[in-house]
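#onboarding

Welcome to the new folks! Below is a worked example of what a typical request in this channel looks like: someone posts a single protein sequence, and someone else replies with the predicted structure as tokens. Don't worry about understanding the tokens yet, we'll cover that in week two.

Example request:
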Amino acid sequence: MPTTSLKSTAESAGRLVLVVGPSGVGKDTLLDGARAALAGDAGVVFARREITRPAEAGGEDHTPVEMAAFQARAAAGGYLLSWEANGHGYGLPRALQIDLAAGRTVVANASRAALAEARTLFPGMRVVSITAAPETVAVRLAGRGRETAAEIAARLARGGAYAVEGQDVVVVRNDGPAADGIAALTAAIRG
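Example response:
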């Protein structure tokens, strides 16, 4: 079960945008596309997460960190937001608070399980919930070749376990061409 830890933070002039969604909905593809689309916009910062897995493990570009170091940093308030899920720790470096204080929009890949606490400390934040039909997700997960059919079924079941709702939520359906999802995510970040 994921756990979250978010240390108290002062009001900021910028906005935190948390992009969430279950494995296989295409978050990394959409985030990479939005990052490219907004590359010239100095008012938008894409967070690089610290993750307790090796850099060569694939997936998003991240800063690898050992679990003991991650847990110590989280306990010391070194993360703006941190959580543990699926045997790994994930953290958004505390230094992102500088960008928020400067009025920038900080975009981060986050866990749905971290939203309640994040909303308490960042009341002006936005949540972008990436969704896709279970059939689409199953095909994508199978295409990665990292999981068995049973593991894919378990991921699909977990994917439906969290309802992402609220006035701060923008839903992006990612069943069609990647360009459509990227455009929708980019608009949600700018909005």
